[in-house]
Amino acid sequence: MTTMQQPPYPPPEPQRGRGSEQGSGHGHGSGAGHGHGPGHEHGPGAGQGSGQSPGESPGHGHAHGHSHSHGPAAPVSKHLRKVIAAVLIPFTAAVVVGLVVLWPGGAPPHERTGVGFDRQTHQATVTQVVAVNCKSVNASGDIPTGDTSTAEGSSAQQQTTGTCKKATIRVDTGKDKGRTFTEIVQPDQSRQLHQGEKVIVAYEPSAPKDLQYSVTDVNRKFPLALLAGIFALAVVVVGRLRGVMALVALAISFLVLTLFILPAVLQGSNPLVVAVIGSSAIMLIALYICHGLSARTSVAVLGTLVSLLLIGVLGSGFIGWAALTGNTDDNTGLIHGLYPSIDMSGLLLAGVIIGSLGVLDDVTVTQTSAVWELHEANPSMGWRGLYRAGIRIGRDHIASVVNTLVLAYAGAALPLLLLFSIAQSSVGTVANSELVAEEIVRTLVGSIGLVASVPVTTALAALVVSADRPGQEAPAPVEAAVPAGAAARGGRGRRRKR
Description:
Blueprint: H1 43-48, H2 78-102, E1 120-133, H3 134-137, H4 151-161, E2 163-171, E3 180-185, E4 198-203, E5 213-218, H5 221-266, H6 271-291, H7 295-321, H8 330-338, H9 344-377, H10 383-412, H11 414-422, H12 427-432, H13 434-467, H14 478-489
Antiparallel strand pairs: 1-2, 1-4, 2-3, 4-5
């Protein structure tokens, strides 16, 4: 405080009271804080701009605790955002109208058949299990004289000479709560009952009283709920707020599936139309909830939409060409028997579209983010350079995603594949059967859509971020833009716009 003379060199830190940041080593002036060397910005301009001048050295590139944005300028201008909105807003409106028009009032009622899942069920508990002689509890006490080397003969032998279990089960829900009944468990049954075990019992009111209840399965609600809780905890701990948003989107997707898609199909609406509207609603809700309302997310939505359209066209063509009926097992046969008006081949195509959506949004979001980050690292890169760099990332993604999808379907159909292996059928015979052909078409159509989503989304993202340049200030050189971006990511200023 002994002299008011300005030193011949800049101070070690820029003056904070004027909202300007000094360059690296030259410039002079009075208290107005104007820089006069090359690459400097005047005080008022610096107070409203990016917070770091293009000529600034890395040593002075740190941000200060004021309220101005320090990240790079938004890569998408308001004009281009309006173009994106002009595409997505009518599409979103069409989805909302489709939801309103096709919204069901619930699944239509029907008379229960008592077959498979179409049975009345209640919760129950195994209260007692005692060992008994199979000969004393089975209908016939005669020892079989047939060939015991076969599976049927061996089972009959065990049911006559082995040790069975007599289980007492108490019904815990329904009008007969507290009622008990007994069930004989054969020694060769795959599921053996244990005392204290929670089970699911089927109820058939038209059967004789002592045969109205029977054990159908084990009650797995607690271990499944515990596993779901561990999953949710892991997502929240690792993903934090993004993890919470992902769980919210997952819950909404499940509600759309159970409250709209399934009941609408049961009411007789076209399964393909229902699947397109429902999956579009899930896509819009999930992507914007998880990744925010931004141009980046909108590009991912557009890429996902184009890929879904391609999957729908290919799936419709090849399901019809391969004459796939969609009625291949007991469950689909029961659905067709209860609701003959349902188009089972259309239901198969709807499953292809919905099943592909879960992997598609992962691919499109990843590719869009990669292109955005490449542009931020090098704003001078044109759309061709961005596309080439992004597609190199996408090729690695394609290899892993396609392999994942194929193995997922193969794992689900593993018991069926084992049956064909046991029968020593040729690969052509196995592939030609409708059960396997459905999975082949489902896998390949979905994989083609996934592969196509990479170049489509990468091209859209590259065009969007490079086609429009905000005109407020000249783009910063590459070497200056990287420290500025790093400073913005340090958390000391506001987050960059998207």
